[in-house]
Amino acid sequence: MTLAPQTDLAPAAADVILSARDIAVQFGGLRAVDGVSLDVRRGEVVGVIGPNGAGKTTFFQVLSGFVRASAGEVRFLGDPITNLPPEAICRRGLTRTFQIVEVFPSLTVRETLTAAALVHQPMAAARRVAEETAALVRLKDKLDLTCRQLTLPDQKALEIGKAVATRPQMILLDEVMAGLRPSEAEEVVALIRRLRDGGITFLVVEHLMEVIMSISDRVVVIGAGRKIAEGPPDEVVRNPKVVEIYLGEEFELA
Ligand SMILES: Nc1ncnc2c1ncn2[C@@H]1O[C@H](COP(=O)(O)OP(=O)(O)OP(=O)(O)O)[C@@H](O)[C@H]1O
Ligand SMILES: [Mg+2]
User: Fold this and answer.
1) Is the Cβ–Cβ distance between 185 and 152 less than 8 Å?
2) Which residue among 28, 79, 92, 134 has the highest number of C-beta atoms inside a 10 angstrom radius?
3) Is 205 within 8 Å of 56 (Cβ atoms)?
4) Are 210 and 180 contacting, i.e. CB atoms less than 8 angstroms apart?
5) Using one digit for the tens of pLDDT, what is the confidence trace for 98-150?
6) What number of CA atoms fall less than 13 Å from residue 55's CA on the CB side?
């Protein structure tokens, strides 16, 4: 007997970097996430959309270890990571940004990125990673500014930079473009594309549909804690269920 069938199957399985199965989160009487399953392949940008309070952030919090799943399993690079502490998940190469930009206003860009890089390496190496990361997110000439001196677009670049400095294989972006003008959001989209071309996989929650449409290889729609649609962006926005619960008629006609 040959091993051919097994090797034929291997690449497809190896392609999946993140796999979530039947994830549920219970907050008292509220089932905020109610049985969501999702596979993300290496190198993909997957968009996640849905109404306010649908459970998108809570789902991200489970993937990144900030909230305990009451049921289900998360695998990253084939290994179970369900309910591991956030630092342990980050060290394996899966990291996230926060919906509310989380920087210490009095720290400099250099200090902020160095602190993030310390997850993986000792101080000297972390300082180097901080400089490399600043170049990547176009904050090299602002390394010694404090976070409070940054413009909003630069704060967003730093928020992504904090994730990049942990040397991740995959980043979860939670509404990182909220509050930006369209031209500023385009810059962030370009940054995400550059990072994706550099080998980082993305799961992206955004309400800005232009962004989701332009950046996503695939879109997942969450409504009331459940996955209600999944597919190519242009297909998903025409799905009547998605129009009904999230996009509205106007978008359908556009
Ligand atoms: N720590 C918590 N304790 C109790 N309920 C919570 C907690 N976090 C979120 N919720 C509730 O869980 C539900 C899902 O919230 P979540 O923040 O995940 O939604 P979301 O899809 O990210 O919404 P948005 O688009 O507004 O960011 C909401 O009803 C919210 O009020
Ligand atoms: Mg949210």
Assistant:
1) no
2) 134
3) yes
4) no
5) 766 667 888 999 999 999 999 888 999 999 999 999 999 999 999 999 999 99
6) 25
User: In the beta sheet, which residues pair with residue 26?
Assistant: 31
The gap from C-alpha 222 to its chain's centroid, in whole angstroms, comes to 15
C-beta 57 within 6 A of ligand 1: yes
Q: Please provide the DSSP assignment of 68-110 as one string.
A: --SEEEEEETTEE-TT--HHHHHHTTEEE--SS----TTSBHH
Query: 252 is written with which tokens?
Result: 């359908």
Amino acid, res. 26: Q
Domains in the chain, start-ordered, CATH in brackets? 16-50+68-253 (3.40.50.300)
Distance 42 CA to ligand 2 centre (A): 24
Nearest to 170 by CA among 3, 4, 17: 17
Q: Which residues surround ligand 2, an ion (CB under 5 A)?
A: 57
